[in-house]
Amino acid sequence: xxxxxxxxxxxxxxxxxxxxxxxxxxxxxxxxxxxxxxxxxxxxxxxxxxxxxxxxxxxxxxxxxxxxxxxxxxxxxxxxxxxxxxxxxxxxxxxxxxxxxxxxxxxxxxxxxxxxxxxxxxxxxxxxxxxxxxxxxxxxxxxxxxxxxxxxxxxxxxxxxxxxxxxxxxxxxxxxxxxxxxxxxxxxxxxxxxxxxxxxxxxxxxxxxxxxxxxxxxxxxxxxxxxxxxxxxxxxxxxxxxxxxxxxxxxxxxx
Amino acid sequence: xxxxxxxxxxxxxxxxxxxxxxxxxxxxxxxxxxxxxxxxxxxxxxxxxxxxxxxxxxxxxxxxxxxxxxxxxxxxxxxxxxxxxxxxxxxxxxxxxxxxxxxxxxxxxxxxxxxxxxxxxxxxxxxxxxxxxxxxxxxxxxxxxxxxxxxxxxxxxxxxxxxxxxxxxxxxxxxxxxxxxxxxxxxxxxxxxxxxxxxxxxxxxxxxxxxxxxxxxxxxxxxxxxxxxxxxxxxxxxxxxxxxxxxxxxxxxxxxxxxxxxxxxxxxxxxxxxxxxxxxxxxxxxxxxxxxxxxxxxxxxxxxxxxxxxxxxxxxxxxxxxxxxxxxxxxxxxxxxxxxx
Lengths: 255, 341
What we know:
The complex is a heterodimer of chains A (255) and B (341). With 255 residues, chain A is an alpha/beta fold. Chain A is built from nine helices and twelve strands. Chain A has helices at 40-48, 70-76, 92-97, 111-123, 139-153, 169-184, 196-202, 220-223, 226-233; strands spanning 2-11, 14-24, 29-33, 55-60, 63-64, 77-80, 157-161, 188-192, 205-210, 213-218, 237-241, 247-251. In chain A, the strands form three sheets. Chain A has a six-stranded mixed β-sheet, sandwiched between helices. A four-stranded antiparallel β-sheet of chain A has the order 2-1-4-5, covered by helices on one side. Chain A has a two-stranded antiparallel sheet with strand order 11-12. The N and C termini of chain A lie far apart (41 Å). The N and C termini of chain B lie close together (8 Å). In chain B, a hairpin with a 2-residue loop joins β1 (145-146) and β2 (149-150). Chain B has a single domain, classed as ABC transporter involved in vitamin B12 uptake, BtuC (Orthogonal Bundle), CATH 1.10.3470. Chain B is mostly helical and 341 residues long. Chain B has 14 helices and two strands, in the order αααααββααααααααα. The longest helix of chain B has 32 residues, at 56-87. Chain B has a two-stranded antiparallel ribbon with strand order 1-2. Classes of the chains: A alpha/beta (255), B mainly alpha (341). Chains A and B meet through α2 and β6 of A and α9 and α10 of B.
């Protein structure tokens, strides 16, 4: 699905991302983990095509990402941003309909687009907000409407920057379950995530980043180890095996 | 924030609002064409035109060009305001804020004082105003752009800086102007349709049609833009193309509007706001609605400006400021935070 080859990104003389080599298979749920400023968001934005790598190349479906037009790319991948603000009184349904923009044939959405948008709102249990103005929603409600928007965009690849921020546990689990379902349907998802336990529970593969460098890469069991975590975050951790098999991670009190 | 004060409206209601505005426009234009020192009842206009009765000359040579020009200028100013608000994702953006108006004014002033006079005026003036308006807008944009991104604050500051620069230029030209040039300058600076003739209309109209066409085509992309520039990119919008065309369209229309009628403020700010209050934020509704609403507003303002102290005329820029200022204040008090933040 996606190949990164020697990808580096430099801005103002600082390397935010250095020498990342990564192959992401179709149908996988990937988690990018690491401390603040590790380069998780930057890497996502590079994969989305928004940023141009300083070195190396990124390919989607075998084709270099910058050979796609913005519209073609928008049908292939969707991006959920951390920070959102809308200064105009759009309703939630209108915001979700923005997700159909790459498919617009004329200037107006079709009935099919409308149905897709409504279904997307139902998938994140936000149908009741359809007619509410987006700027009146709480942080968590707005996050779910945004997830509905990228669902309506119906891409092959979902890039999610901290999708569980601002959400209560129920909706965190709901969003990540949704990611799982998406991947089971043969789509691919990459999510930058801070919560190591959610990452451990849901991700098929993890990439552990620090200062823009890949520290470790592989299934949660091999990445979320005492040694690697302490080295990356600079504090002590306790790691237990959860009865269901995945590692269970807690920062240690005795540091 | 308390946005609940704003009502949610359906597409059908928006279409109704648009249709109402579209039917109000010819009505307001007919009334405006009839009222004046020589009174003509609006419903007698077809009869007079057909049978060439008394008043034919007044209608065709005086009133019509003026009414048509004010409608065209109002449409251009309002749709430009709505577009810039969408591009900057800020409901307070106004063509004046980023220097289009001052730049076009400077171009017109430079032309009047340094070059103008004679037969060249009708083509030279709009070209000078247009060129200068584009130049100032592009400069503001370039100053604010940083690695392909435009920072709102820098944009605002660059706009203020270049506005004062253009203002200084206008001031200098005023200082250098002789008496006759000074009269023309005053016309520019206060704005008015006293000079409306068919040639002016015929120069302005094609520019307006191109400009409106360009701007209306950006409506769907402007919707995506309201999520933010990178979000718009992720939704498949070529943001650089969108910005280029929008700036081109705004510079074209505002340049033409200022060169035809001088600096008329508040239309670009108030009309899009009103449309959003009535029917929501979708640019596919706000842009055409603003064009028609701006036309109605300026036709009415011009009617007021030439009748209120008849036989003398108030510059229409003063009228729009007189109506626009208190109206804007009312909006501010009525809806306080929810519209502006």
